[in-house]
Amino acid sequence: MRLALVLSLLLLFPFSHALSCIDNATDIIFSEQGTLILGVLAFTMVIIAVAYILGSFTSNPSFTVFAKDEIYHLGFSVALLVGFSAILLFSCSAVDMFYKTTFENLGVTSICYDSGADMSDVSVCYLDGAKGDAERISEMYIDEYINYLMHSAFSVTISIPLMNSYTSAAGAWRRVVANQYDSVLNMFVFPALISLNMQELFLGFVSANIIKWLLPIALLLRIFIPTRQMGNMLIALSIGLYIIVPFIYTFNLAMYDLVGSGDCLEYSAAITDNYFGNCQDQGSFWDVARLIPQAFFLPNLTIALLITFLTGLNKALRVIG
After folding, report:
1. pLDDT tens string 201-211
2. What is residue 279's DSSP assignment?
3. How far apart are CA 230 and CA 318, in angstroms?
């Protein structure tokens, strides 16, 4: 009864890829690590059988209790292994309804989103767009920095024969502007660009490898008593990375995509600069400010939510098996 209740709760996790979860995660797991998993399962069954026979033959309850306990945990591990596809697919259906309803009610129009989109692809697409903006801004700032720095050397010299000469650094003020571009570039744009690039690599790695490698290892660790809790943690980590992270990234990056120059007008007095331009100009302070949350704050929020999810799911798995 408890096992059925737990599996039902696992099926209700409302975070996943929309419409494109792996159709049969179990097949993928077995195709990558199937021989090893089946070998360990068979070995565990032999150990259980030997322990039960010893308990019956010697009338030692320790062996019998051990065998029954291992049967329960082995059955739960097999149920997780076989039912993981159903868990993912049911999660897809739940989140797809929320995903489409939210975006379509907002009237979102984006090159990354459509009603049948894969959430992982949408998040990577949005992230690639943000990274492209950071690259464009950095290239623009470098060009402006070099341009102002070169022209800052302009000077005018007036020479009076047999008396004296006077030199005026007429372009010296351009060095101040060049330093302004350099400061914003090094303090905000470059760190944001590096952060976005690393996030894109991470999302790509998670989508391609988590189900194939981390989950089979987690199921193997659950077979043995000393490593069972580590297996539970890795199962929670597999589900969290494959399900929670793309979901949160999609909505975080959708906010970046939706916040345009029109939202800047309220703050135009603070944004407008003689050289960086105003809200409508490319490379303005507003464009830089849009990068900051996605590059630094929202990834930390994602990590915090992921840790909360891992803690809760790990406790649930620990209680039931």
Report:
1. 888 888 767 77
2. T
3. 10
